[in-house]
Q: What sequence folds into this?
């Protein structure tokens, strides 16, 4: 695999309207450099994630704005883009009447893979995804999780696809399958493959991604790193102290850093704020009754952001 | 070749998976000939055709060949309908698949099955009547049969892409199948009944006439040949355009 590019994906002011009425995306802009090889798009259901992926993968026509994928314009160079990407959609896109091997084999040929490479790659993936024994079974005879694994295998089949889009990578997989898929994605990312994931699974984002894009209501809400996202939106800590004039003044003067959680508990938004508050309390000799440092998860951050709870703390 | 091979491999694999339906597709016309037509031959031993009398089995054989081609349309429509519904068309075209390859894959795979069926039919006919078409007649049969087959396969592709609901698809096929067969001169001459008006707007009529001429006389009227070819080419173009329109752009 080659060197990482500066901006693998650039999206500028993209708007998409379905049927002339439903506005799925409104002026979305961002760029993704895939620093650790994995970039995640987060957002609640109906946020516009799938539309965005469909536009980037040339599945639907770009109406307004500009998108460049691997340095290529989706309007003018869709053929070249398609040669270099692979897509694993959320919905099952398999010939359920055909066997796992036939699905992979015919898809590999349609992708233009050489037969020798296709054969070895197919068997390798069957082994990785623990489906070698079931390779000759019809897809319809597999469990939901196994079908999902076949879909993933298909997306990872062609090594010439440098950029792999996966919509909800581990949807329907059991914990072991999830963990194995994450490992595989990480291994492939280390080898130089690039992954764009759209997901609502926060554990997945936390485990895999470095950069994330958060969209909601068809708009870009923010692009940041997982660490920064957690720091800002999921870094709240609670401090129980005796309520007094000094403390009330600090909270009043720092509305973006703290708020009253209940009668005698102050909630601060991140570790820096916590440090400043404790220093302040120490200088003013205010006794700290109980110090509860309660970290929020990425999921809390996600919910805070969706509900607007993160307002003012960015 | 790889991409096309992928499509053909898939089509043939579908046939293998549904072996019962595949064998049925091949054997049904032979059963028509062996049972239905042979039984009718007892009552109607000969049919007047082109100023002479020909055995009923020979008269009907081109009609059976034509309905065999017609039967590709509900099958292909069903496959294409599911390919679209389950996003397979999108995934093939996002990979290196192209609309013309998708169509060609179907034409070659279905054509292969049809060829086997035709050889079986002609062999049975030779056994029953002792008649084998000349090499020239066989060439003419191919010249007429190919656009006929392309017409029905393309119609199936087009309908599979256009129809959005499974119930509509089933209703269309049920409503079309029998009227198409029984208003065309497949088993009988409709020339003297009111059916001739309906027959004149039925594409199968002209296809059966052309096939029958090729099979029984070794010559085909130029207008009929051109018309059959034009219908096949037109339907192929329409289905290609529709396929392009539903492809990811």
A:
């Amino acid at each position: 695999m080659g060197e990482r590019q500066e901006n693998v994906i650039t999206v500028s002011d993209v708007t998409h309207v379905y049927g002339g009425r439903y506005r799925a995306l409104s002026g979305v802009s961002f760029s993704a450099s895939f620093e650790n090889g994995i970039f995640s798009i987060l957002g609640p259901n109906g946020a516009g994630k799938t539309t965005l992926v469909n536009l980037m993968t040339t599945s639907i026509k770009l109406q307004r704005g500009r998108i460049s994928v691997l340095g290529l314009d989706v309007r003018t160079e869709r053929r070249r883009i398609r040669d270099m990407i692979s897509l694993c959609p959320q919905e099952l896109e398999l010939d359920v009447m055909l066997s796992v091997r036939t699905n992979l084999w015919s898809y590999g040929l349609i992708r233009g893979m050489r037969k020798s490479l296709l054969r070895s790659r197919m068997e390798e993936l069957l082994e990785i995804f623990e489906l070698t024994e079931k390779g000759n079974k019809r897809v319809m005879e597999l469990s939901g999780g196994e079908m999902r694994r076949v879909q993933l295998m298909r997306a990872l089949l062609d090594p010439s696809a440098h950029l792999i889009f996966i919509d909800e990578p581990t949807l329907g997989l059991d914990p072991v399958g999830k963990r194995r898929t994450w490992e595989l994605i990480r291994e492939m990312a280390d080898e130089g493959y690039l992954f764009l994931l759209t997901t609502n699974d926060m554990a997945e984002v936390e485990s895999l991604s470095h950069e994330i894009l958060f969209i909601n209501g068809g708009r870009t809400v923010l692009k940041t790193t997982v660490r920064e996202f957690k720091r800002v939106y999921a870094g709240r800590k609670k401090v129980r102290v005796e309520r007094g004039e000094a403390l009330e003044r600090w909270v009043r003067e720092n509305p973006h850093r703290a708020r009253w959680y209940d009668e005698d508990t102050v909630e601060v938004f991140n570790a820096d704020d916590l440090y400043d508050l404790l220093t302040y309390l120490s200088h003013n000799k205010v006794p700290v009754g109980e110090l509860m440092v309660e970290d929020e998860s990425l999921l809390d951050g996600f919910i805070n952001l969706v509900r607007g709870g993160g307002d003012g703390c960015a | 070749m790889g991409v096309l091979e992928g499509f053909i491999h898939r089509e043939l694999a579908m046939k293998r998976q549904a072996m019962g339906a595949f064998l049925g597709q091949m054997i049904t016309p032979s059963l028509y000939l062996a049972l239905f037509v042979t039984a009718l031959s007892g009552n109607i031993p000969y049919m007047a055709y082109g100023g002479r009398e020909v055995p009923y089995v020979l008269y009907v054989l081109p009609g059976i060949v034509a309905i065999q081609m017609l039967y590709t349309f509900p099958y292909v429509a069903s496959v294409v309908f599911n390919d679209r519904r389950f996003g397979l068309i999108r995934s093939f075209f996002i990979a290196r698949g192209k609309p013309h390859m998708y169509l060609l894959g179907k034409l070659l795979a279905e054509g292969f099955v049809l060829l086997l069926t035709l050889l079986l039919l002609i062999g049975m006919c030779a056994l029953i009547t002792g008649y084998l078409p000349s090499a020239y007649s066989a060439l003419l049969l191919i010249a007429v049969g190919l656009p006929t087959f392309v017409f029905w396969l393309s119609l199936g592709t087009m309908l599979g892409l256009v129809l959005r609901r499974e119930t509509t698809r089933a209703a269309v096929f049920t409503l079309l199948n029998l009227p198409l067969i029984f208003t065309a001169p497949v088993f009988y001459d409709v020339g003297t009944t009111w059916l001739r008006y309906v027959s004149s707007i039925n594409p199968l009529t002209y296809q059966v006439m052309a096939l029958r001429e090729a099979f029984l006389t070794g010559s085909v009227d130029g207008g009929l040949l051109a018309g059959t070819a034009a219908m096949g080419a037109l339907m192929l173009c329409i289905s290609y355009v529709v396929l392009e329109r539903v492809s990811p752009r």
Q: What stands out?
A: Residues 9-230 of chain A form a domain with the Rossmann fold fold (CATH 3.40.50.300).
